Inverse folding.
């Protein structure tokens, strides 16, 4: 399996590390709703087919990526940079 | 075993091998059963057997998409052990070990259970302490365990690299002497034949494509061989759990499917008479009776339903095998294959009632399902028959994640690709 990193180009699987399901939305940190947190931490759709997932190009540019991959064939249909989260802090 | 005795083999050879009978019937599905089990692998077949034997429920069908034992029961590295740390796990796996010890007699089928021991190697002082702790926990729960020195390891495994200059020098190991290996296919065949003889219908080429409902209640299955109604439906499909449960409208579970690769080398003269695991990585290796080294390591580490893996893990596993046994560098690989693991969020299995009325779920075996085959069926049969778990599988509930009672043997958290 090769992943085409949008920054570095096609690279071997061994350069990447996996970070799981990218369709989950992290609940608001202030949330105390246990069901919402449990669902986020433990429950997975685990589809047989298209799967959006996080990878990091840890042996390359170290960018976090969102890869769309078919879990039946391993065919990759899309690779994007993972959307960064705005922290609200100004950069100096 | 009398049916396949030396006398029978001779007698049938004399008659041109025309006297052998099929080991189980090939019945057509009946319109309804007391229990339908989805999945004709090791766990499904043992569940059927114990339902009939322990609970007198023989009006049972096992629906198998392919042929019996075509999944992970024939794809594992055949290791049987009960060397766990945590309270929820150890009594269950030790019960399984006790069932293994009598399994060939119980089934009248030689499953070639060989208690050759398993040795977990340690490479750092901290690992020695941690492993001794696990050994002590095992002994407190009535399981055999003992620490071995490097000298003892050298006597036990002459091919092992015990040099202090090794990249990860070996400081000792923990042995469970009663652990061992079994002939995996024979386990499926033995349970299949024994269940069949107690009246269970084994339906091969019978893929479940939907569920029948009676209000909220699951009332049977739609299959490629027609509709089958059942009072109780038990799902026991390992890596396909997500796909099958989606047919029932359950679209989220604490499960991810991952591929685990396994390897066998060409046949060698006796090199290794135990099972040994590498402690500075992940490798488990033994030698089959045929002489091949049977070994495996980590899962590939990304969600997949494909029964094949990628090369980085192959390289990783080979490197670890050669690190332990330098002489293995010259050995050629015979075959490699992959199986789909139902990786749970805490690395421990689920044997429970529900999640829908009339349904029972057995999954989450990660890559430790083979050793559990007897106890999994034994406990699942109890859970189905009594509508409540046996004390041995009480901790393996489906709602333990949301209640905060995870059984995380490795302390890894909800990252199934790292368990």
């Amino acid at each position: 399996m090769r992943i085409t990193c949008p920054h570095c180009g096609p690279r071997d699987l061994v350069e990447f590390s996996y970070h799981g399901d990218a369709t989950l939305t992290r609940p608001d940190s202030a949330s105390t709703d246990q069901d919402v947190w449990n669902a986020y931490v433990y429950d997975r759709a685990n589809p047989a087919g298209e799967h959006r997932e996080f990878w990091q190009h840890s042996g390359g540019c170290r960018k976090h990526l969102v890869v769309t991959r078919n879990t039946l064939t391993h065919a990759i249909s899309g690779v994007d940079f993972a959307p960064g989260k705005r922290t609200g802090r100004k950069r100096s | 075993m009398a049916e396949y005795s030396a006398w029978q083999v001779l007698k049938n050879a004399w008659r041109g091998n025309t006297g052998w009978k099929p080991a189980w019937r090939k019945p057509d599905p009946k319109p309804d059963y007391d229990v339908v089990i989805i999945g004709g692998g090791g766990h499904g077949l043992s569940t059927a057997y114990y339902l009939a034997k322990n609970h007198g429920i023989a009006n049972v069908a096992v629906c198998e998409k392919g042929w019996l034992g075509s999944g992970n029961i024939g794809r594992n590295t055949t290791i049987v052990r009960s060397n766990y740390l945590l309270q929820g796990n150890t009594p269950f796996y030790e019960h399984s070990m006790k069932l293994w010890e009598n399994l060939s007699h119980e089934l009248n089928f030689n499953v070639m259970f060989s208690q050759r021991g398993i040795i977990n190697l340690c490479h750092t002082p901290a690992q020695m302490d941690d492993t001794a702790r696990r050994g002590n926990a095992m002994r407190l729960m009535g399981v055999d365990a003992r620490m071995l020195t490097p000298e003892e390891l050298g006597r036990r495994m002459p091919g092992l690299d015990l040099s202090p200059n090794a990249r990860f020098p070996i400081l000792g190991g923990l042995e469970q002497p009663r652990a061992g290996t079994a002939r995996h296919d024979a386990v499926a065949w033995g349970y299949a034949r024994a269940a069949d003889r107690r009246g269970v219908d084994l339906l091969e080429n019978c893929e479940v494509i939907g569920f029948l409902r009676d209000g909220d209640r699951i009332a049977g299955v739609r299959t490629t061989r027609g509709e089958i109604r059942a009072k109780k439906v038990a799902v026991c499909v390992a890596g396909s759990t997500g796909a099958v449960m989606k047919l029932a409208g359950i679209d989220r579970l604490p499960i991810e499917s991952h591929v685990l690769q396994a390897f066998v080398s060409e046949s060698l003269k006796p090199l290794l008479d135990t099972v040994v695991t590498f402690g500075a990585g992940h490798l488990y290796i033994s030698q089959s009776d045929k002489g091949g080294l049977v070994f495996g390591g980590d899962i590939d580490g990304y969600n997949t339903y494909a029964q094949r893996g990628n090369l980085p893990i192959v390289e990783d596993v080979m490197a670890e095998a050669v690190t332990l046994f330098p002489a293995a560098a010259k050995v050629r690989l015979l075959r490699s294959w992959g199986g789909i693991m139902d990786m749970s969020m805490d690395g421990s299995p689920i044997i429970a009632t529900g999640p829908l009325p009339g349904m029972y779920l057995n999954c989450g075996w990660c890559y430790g399902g083979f050793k559990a085959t007897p106890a999994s069926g034994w406990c699942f049969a109890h859970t189905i028959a009594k509508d409540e778990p046996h004390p041995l599988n009480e901790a393996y509930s489906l709602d333990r994640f949301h209640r905060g009672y995870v059984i995380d043997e490795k302390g890894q958290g909800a990252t199934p690709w790292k368990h």
In short: The first strand of chain B starts at residue 32 and ends at 38. Chain B touches chain A at residues 242-243, 251-257, 301-306, 310-312, 345, 401-402, 414-415, 417 (CB under 8 Å). Residues 118-179+256-344 of chain B form a domain with the D-Amino Acid Oxidase; Chain A, domain 2 fold (CATH 3.30.9.10). The mean pLDDT of chain B is 95.
